[in-house]
Amino acid sequence: MTTNNSHSPILSAPGARALLGSSILARLPLAMFSIALLVNAQRLTGSFAVAGAVSGAYAIAGAISAPLLGRLVDRCGQTTVLVAGATVAAVMLVATGLAPSSTPPAVLVALAAAAGMSTPPLSACVRTLLPAMVSDPERLPTLFAFESTVLEVTFILGPPLALGIGALWSTGAALAAAGMIMLASTLAFAAQPASRAWRPDPSAPRRRGGSLRAPAIPILALIELATGAVFGATDVGVTAAAKALGSTAAAGPLLGLWGLGSLLGGIAATRLGGSARRAGGLILLLGALAVAHGALTLVTGSVLGIAVVILIAGATIAPTAASIYAMVDRYAPTGTSTEAFSWALTAAMTGEALGAAVGGGLAQSAGAAAAFGFAGAAGGVAVAIALLGSRRLDGGARDPAALEPPTLEPAALEPAAVAQPHAA
């Protein structure tokens, strides 16, 4: 993969492609879990209320545990946390998939919560390793943009794959299969030399507050909370709009276009050199995200109109996410990178849950346009947070050592070979 900023591949380091590829495969099942838990619980109990509680328990437990697991990785290394977490989560998911229809709802909720609590912090771990994948720190934003782009494939393929397996075999089989795929692919990622060799910095001070003591990290987490609300409300709004137009089945393809838009936006960002380096650039991206998603209020009367606007709105997602990830990496205090990325993930998941809840209530009472209006407003809040926190986002890393790549054993990554220039 090359960009117009340089003729050398951004994944030129030995093992970089295998590391990123295994991480994408390991995160594909994560995009299957929520919908698989939802449809399986509904099939077992016949209740959408129970199904929502099961899916919510998984999401909430995962949001709570992510920073704790991230901090554990920062203190103990990646291998043990990834392997143990993936094993426990897989056992819980397989048990849920094999559960009979007589299983009490409380047991299904408990199993889902246990699965969420133990789900390994894969995204945080791989983003902690990315700085060692490039020899030139200036190219790190490009690598974050590329990682965000290829990750969109999991969101495009994950839900249809879960529903497809459920239709061909059973919803329980889909859940069990997703759990086993997650376990196998997480083990493959944990076996990569870079992940195995990553060690916490023994000289890093263990201060109260962890990564949140860096002034920029809470700002970035709040931005993630607000953008998560945009996505949660949009998800509900699309479903409500499709149902109101008598085309409920169109919701899936419309959400797929949303993911496709993000994929295309990420490709463009990667080709143009990555992400926003300063607060001003992030504010522009957040503004575009807010306006594009808010514009869905104008096209709720047409499936075609929604398709066009949501494709454009999706194009703002990956570049914005890549900018936030690059800033998290830049400002995380030494020894807290995994925890910092986990806080960003927790904030996004919490925001998405809040957005879905508020958007669902608005869609029920006032229609899909109200849900999209809330999404646009949430995007406006993200812009306001970035504006108010711009000095912190442009203030430079408070801890200079935070700019250094993670500690790797010498055998983990050999010096990157010099790639030969080639014509575009």
State the gist of this model.
The chain is mainly α. It has two domains: 186 residues, Growth Hormone, Chain: A (Up-down Bundle); 198 residues, Growth Hormone, Chain: A, CATH 1.20.1250.20.
Descriptive notes:
The protein is mainly α and 424 residues long. It has 2 domains: 15-200, Growth Hormone, Chain: A (Up-down Bundle); 206-403, MFS general substrate transporter like domains (Growth Hormone, Chain: A). It contains 17 helices and no strands. The chain has helices spanning 16-27, 30-45, 48-76, 78-98, 105-118, 122-129, 140-168, 171-190, 193-197, 216-244, 251-271, 279-294, 303-314, 317-331, 337-366, 368-388, 390-393. Helix 3 runs antiparallel to helix 15 (337-366) and helix 12 (279-294) runs antiparallel to helix 14. The chain is globular.
Strand element count: 0
What is the assigned CATH homologous superfamily of the largest domain? MFS general substrate transporter like domains
State the CATH architecture of the largest domain: Up-down Bundle
Question: Rg from C-alpha positions?
Answer: 21 Å
Report the uncertain regions: 1-8, 398-424
Category from helices, strands and their pairing:
mainly alpha
Order of helices and strands: HHHHHHHHHHHHHHHHH
Number of helices: 17
How many domains make up the 3D coordinates?
2
Write the layout of secondary structure elements.
Layout: H1 16-27, H2 30-45, H3 48-76, H4 78-98, H5 105-118, H6 122-129, H7 140-168, H8 171-190, H9 193-197, H10 216-244, H11 251-271, H12 279-294, H13 303-314, H14 317-331, H15 337-366, H16 368-388, H17 390-393
Helix pairs in contact: 1-7, 1-8, 2-3, 2-7, 2-8, 3-4, 3-5, 3-15, 4-5, 4-8, 6-15, 7-8, 7-11, 7-14, 10-11, 10-14, 10-15, 10-16, 11-13, 11-14, 12-13, 12-14, 12-16, 15-16
